[in-house]
Amino acid sequence: MSNSFLEIKGVSKKFGNIVALDNINLDISKSELFSLLGSSGCGKSTLLRIIAGFEKPDSGKIFLDGEDITLLPPYLRPLNMMFQNYALFPHLNVKKNIEFGLKEERHNNDEINLRVKDIISLLELDGLEKRKIFEISGGQQQRVALARCLVKKPKLLLLDEPLAALDKKLRVQTQFELVNLQYKLGITFIIVTHDQEEAMSLSDRMAIMKSGKVLQTGNPVEVYEKPINEYVANFIGTANIFNIKEISKNFLIEELNIKIDLPKNAQMFQKCLIRPEKISIKKINSNNTTEKCTGVVKEVAYLGSYTKYLVESNNFQFYSFMQNREISERLKIKWDDLVECSWNNESIYFFNE
Amino acid sequence: MSQFIFLMNNFLRKQNFWFVFTPYFWLILFFFIPLALIFKISISVSEWGMPPYRDFIDFSDGGIKINSTLSNYAFIFSDSFYLRSFLNSLSLAFTSTLICLFIGYPIAFYVAKSKENIRNLLLILLIIPFWTSFLLRVYAWKVILQGSGIINVILMKLGFINEPISMLYNQYTVILGVVYTYLPFMILPLYGYLVKFDLNLINASNDLGAKPLKTFIRVILPLSLPGIIAGSMLVFIPVVGEFVIPELLGGSDKLYFGKIIWDEFFVNRDWPIASALAMSGILILVIPIIIFQLMFAKYNFKNE
Amino acid sequence: MNKSLLKIITLAIGFMFLYFPILTLIAYSFNENKRVMLWKGFSLKWYGKLFQNEQIIEAFLISIKVASLSATFATILGVMIGYSLTRISKIPARPFFIFLSSSPLVMPEIILGLSLLLFFISSNHLIGFPSSKGQLTVLISHITFSVAFVAIIIQSRLSSYDKNIEEAAQDLGTLPNKIFWKITAPVIFPSIVSGWLLAFTLSLDDLVVASFTNGPGANTLPIVVFSKVRLGLSPEVNALSAIIMLIVIIAAVFYYLINRSNIKK
């Protein structure tokens, strides 16, 4: 037996002719904050619903804490799910919503009240106990939905797009709260999201999904710096991807016609990735070198902490992101300026499609 | 320019005026005044002639004399015959509403939870009887339950009975007829509420540990309460005044409120008594229901 | 597995209960025998008799006429009520208006019929109008009880749709008095149609109110049918039921197809 807490083994699911999940294998450790990331229709929500028990997989098994839960109905699974639009009961007030699940567990009233009180103060919902669901704000609803699950002390908490319904500022704040809460309680979280930034900032590890398959699992750094293929590279952040060509023992970046040195074991790779923030550009007056990469700035987008430049070189366009560390007219690069681009060789990541 | 806006505003006001005034006037004239008239006649003194009651204000003796009496009410409340028929109607309405609910809820529930293309087809199948003449649907039972009707024929063929048994003209056939004709009125509003039901609420309840039966009791039932109440109202209220079904399928074992009003008016030609009965019906039944509905309006959840 | 079996059985029994009586009636309409129940052989004789029965044909025409007029007027008034209650804030004695427009829904028809009859008689005594009971009095009565049903349909549609589109129209330069015709009416048109259909059905189906308020030359179809079946059975009425069922089913199929094509769009 492996030491993973939640083990998904060869899970497949079809809806009619559409393959929703194709032989999914995942191991998630205890107290991990794990994200399932992918664009809509990639199967991430179906996987979550299978873990929760609302769908049965066509094949495959799911083990939680060593126990096979594949055939357990949702109400017998020791895990809880927070729904995308929270699915709070509109006929019950905040307190009744929170204690709903506890009432099914046959605790005495004192215990229920105590646990509800604890969770209410943990999530700062004090004073709202008697309010109806439609009388509280979106952020408060989100916390009630969280409280309703956490009060049951689940082994595993599933969160379906937990922050999607909140506005931008609240979302960022809630992200941190969610991470803190997870750290404090030590409950394993599985979060489904389509927002790569959210997944990056929340997760210990994440799985990138596409068309019912897991493309890559890893921690955010691995996935960002070493994407397994072009799709993942593009899905997480902005990617400049180039082909590599070999001409008489020399290796060239095909699009830019620039020679590069390959690390020893990299001969077999055909593509390389250079993230925009790893390309720095410098204004030059005239193009007098063929050794270095030079280009013309086609677009400039000032974003406060950094500036995005779209550079065209050799009829190929790529991005460079530069930190705005100083305010200086001298350094300022404008539309149509001629620039020289440079990067560290170590910043290049080589891969095969 | 300001002149133009002023004229525009004026015209708009006029349109609004007609939008409100026309139906307002119609309802006052043909709904409110007739009800007030019932009240007036119910406290009039009955006499032979046309109309068969004495004028409210009488100038005939040279002075003004107001002919008003509560004796009609005293009469109907002292005679247990009227009270009994009213109670019969209430119990008929109550029983059949309950039966309709028990039959209608599972049907509405399963139709609402069907896949969309099947659901639309089933919905049409529910609406067809609703559109078919009410009278003919009652009459159909008269045909079926006849001595030589299909039920008797089948029972005799199967050997359960040797000769036709009489199944018509009693209180049970009345309940059957009422349940049959009013069932769509129960199912359709229930369906309306159940189809809007967010399936994730059921999932959430399961997820929190409630088994299907508990989920039904703790989530589905309370959330479909508005539908249950709407459907029950649509059955209960008209059945209390129901005249046609008891007339076609009922026997002499029980008399109902609608029939009594009908007979007082058409057979006995006692308008004041008929009016007093109608007025009592309004006071006992309709007013509480209106108050109940106004109170219940607050209990409407805003489902986002 | 078990669950879907329970579902199929429930629905099968439910729909059998709803359809068995109607289908029986249709089956018997093809019975040769005059004594409705004893099967003697297939025949279309009662359909022939039905079409020769002038009383029924006349009543049918009167019913259609009254029902379509009543539905039209009730729809106009109902739309006015629905619009007033959702879009116009200044209504004198608003609660009373709400009361008037909704209480016909909860008024037993026997009381409605009685009150209208007494009203027509008194008004005839006072001002000589209506001069006699007839199609006009039935029409007025039917409009009165149908209005509330139409109003509730329109009202729920109007309160559920996005008011922004009316404001958007104003923003784009539509004059306030044109908004209703250019925006509101087209948007709620499906509800107007269903309101009309409901009012039409209510009028066509009504026996009690019509019995109180009808007069010479105003015997609607339910009144004639009722007089025929009150004491016994009538093979002609069986044939009539079959025809009505056929019309309803055709209408339902149309409705279904239209709905389905709408969904597909």
Beta fraction of chain A: 25-35%
Proportion of helical residues of chain A: 10-25%
Separate helix tally of chain A: 8
- Rg result of chain A: 25 Å
Biggest contact: B-C, 88 and 85 residues
**CATH topology (level 3) name of the largest domain in chain B:** MetI-like fold
What's the CATH topology name of the largest domain in chain A?
Rossmann fold
- Report the radius of gyration of chain B as a whole number of Å: 26 Å
Low-confidence stretches of chain A: none
The name of the CATH superfamily of the largest domain in chain A reads: P-loop containing nucleotide triphosphate hydrolases
Order the strands across the largest sheet of chain B as they lie in space: 1-2
Tell me the strand percentage band of chain B. under 5%
Q: Can you tell me the overall shape of chain B?
A: globular
How many separate domains make up the residues of chain B?
Answer: 2
| Oligomer type | heterotrimer
- Tell me the distance between the termini of chain A: 34 Å
Structural class call of chain B reads mainly alpha
Per DSSP E runs of 2 or more residues, the count of β-strands of chain A stands at 20
**pLDDT below 50 for ≥5 consecutive residues: which ranges of chain B?**
none
The CATH class designation of the largest domain in chain A is: Alpha Beta
Query: What is the CATH class of the largest domain in chain B?
Result: Mainly Alpha
What does this 3D model show about the protein?
The complex is a heterotrimer of chains A (353), B (304) and C (265). Chain A is built from eight helices and 20 strands. By secondary structure, chain A is α+β, with helices and mostly antiparallel strands. Chain A folds into two domains: 229 residues, P-loop containing nucleotide triphosphate hydrolases (Rossmann fold, 3-Layer(aba) Sandwich); 112 residues, RNA polymerase II/Efflux pump adaptor protein, barrel-sandwich hybrid domain (OB fold (Dihydrolipoamide Acetyltransferase, E2P), Beta Barrel), CATH 2.40.50.100. In chain A, a hairpin with a 3-residue loop joins strand 16 and strand 17. Chain A is elongated, with a radius of gyration of 25 Å. The mean pLDDT of chain A is 88. The model of chain B has no long low-confidence stretch (mean pLDDT 83). The longest helix of chain B is centred in the first third of the chain and has 41 residues. Chain B has two domains: 30 residues, no CATH class; 223 residues, MetI-like (MetI-like fold). Chain B is globular and about 80 Å long. A two-stranded antiparallel sheet of chain B has the order 1-2. Chain B is mainly α and 304 residues long. Chain C has one domain: MetI-like fold. The two termini of chain C are 34 Å apart. Chain C is mainly alpha-helical and 265 residues long. Chains A and B meet through loops of A and helix 8 and helix 9 of B.
